[in-house]
Amino acid sequence: MGLDQSQLEDWVQAEGQPAYRARQLHEWIYARSARSVEAITVLPKAWRQRWPQPGPDPIGRLAELHRSTARDGTVKLLLATDDGLSLETVGIPSPDRLTVCVSSQVGCPMACRFCATGKQGLQRSLQLHEIVDQVLSVREAMERRPTHVVFMGMGEPLLNSDTVLAAIDCLCRELGMAQRQITVSTVGVASSLPGFAERALHRLGRAQFTLAVSLHAPDQALREQLIPTARAYPIEALLQDCREYVALTGRRVSFEYILLGGLNDQRRHAEALAQLLRGFQSHVNLIPYNPIDEEEFHRPTTKQVEAFRRTLQDRQIAVSVRASRGLDQDAACGQLRRRIGDPAQAGRIYF
Ligand code: SAH
User: What CA–CA distance (Å, rounded) separates 348 from 331?
Assistant: First the structure.
């Protein structure tokens, strides 16, 4: 999984099989969600039996450890890697779309204070097939074709950026998604955005996916309080890199702004944010904080959120509020994994 048609051809030929088997593999992996070579009944039995089940299989599907469904239909999956780690992925349905929120790493080294994943440290970056699997797993679990993918699950995509770009390429070519339906969210890794834009242009031909930058504060001092890694990356340098990203890709950037009651959600913060982003080709997405166990932050009231939104709008900033989904089921990124754990640690598999 993750290979395109010609790479699959190389693989089947190395296996001593005729090239046309690659077409069959492609269809069964991407269109029919085959979980093992053994299950692809059009292939010769003798070849399939090289990988008896259960056992390691070259397709590389992840096992489902746990599934929870919230009252609003949001489905959260905990998936297991071959090396006994677990990762989260979420399917968020609405009448006209199904968005998959995918993880790019197991854990995350960025340690943002309000983030449940940040409390777990980094285990490792995900591989290509482990990212693509998340979209297929949600498609199977929800029996519906995903329309949108957001890299807003566990991990910092810019610390696994080549794999993230390969995954975008795979989702577009092999699963028929469009780049415009994909969003990559980053909290900012010093000086990496222009290089990321160039590599995206090189790898994908064009960079039409949306880049979302987790800003969360209108000034350096407050941002450092919430995001420890921001100390190494002044907010002005981040914004300058964003401008360069816009110039290189021709796409506007969106800014995410988590609203923490009493901390960064006051009128003066909205005014400072509007000032900071004046004249910038951007869009601000406000995210009311989803409470996690370890921290004392507060979710702002609906009235506070609306007042913040209006202050930005009155200053000609394009702004929207992200609806919180799946709140009854560990909505904040990293919570489910924290509650259930890794199969390797627990020494058992949960079904
Ligand atoms: N590392 C990337 C992507 C993963 S987090 C990034 O930081 O952008 C995706 C988004 O969810 C980020 O904007 C992040 O700040 C936000 N987020 C994390 N924890 C949250 C919480 N408890 N409540 C609301 N949003 C949260």
Answer: 25
Kindly give the distance from the C-alpha atom of residue 177 to the centroid of ligand 1, in angstroms, as a whole number: 24
Q: What is the pTM of this model?
A: 0.94
How far apart, in whole angstroms, are the C-alpha atoms of residue 120 and residue 331?
Answer: 16
- The residue ranges of DSSP E strands in the chain, in sequence order, are 63-69, 75-80, 86-94, 97-101, 105-107, 122-125, 148-151, 182-186, 210-214, 253-259, 282-288, 319-321
**Domains with residue ranges and CATH for the chain:** 1-59 (1.10.150.530), 62-345 (3.20.20.70)
Residue 114 Cβ inside 6 Å of ligand 1? The answer reads yes
pLDDT, tens digit, 9 for 90 and up, residues 77-125: 999 999 999 999 999 999 999 999 999 999 999 999 999 999 989 999 9
Instruction: Tell me which of 108, 115, 170, 333 is the catalytic residue.
Output: 333
Q: What single letter denotes the amino acid at residue 115?
A: C
pLDDT tens figures, 182-215: 999 999 999 999 999 999 999 999 999 999 999 9
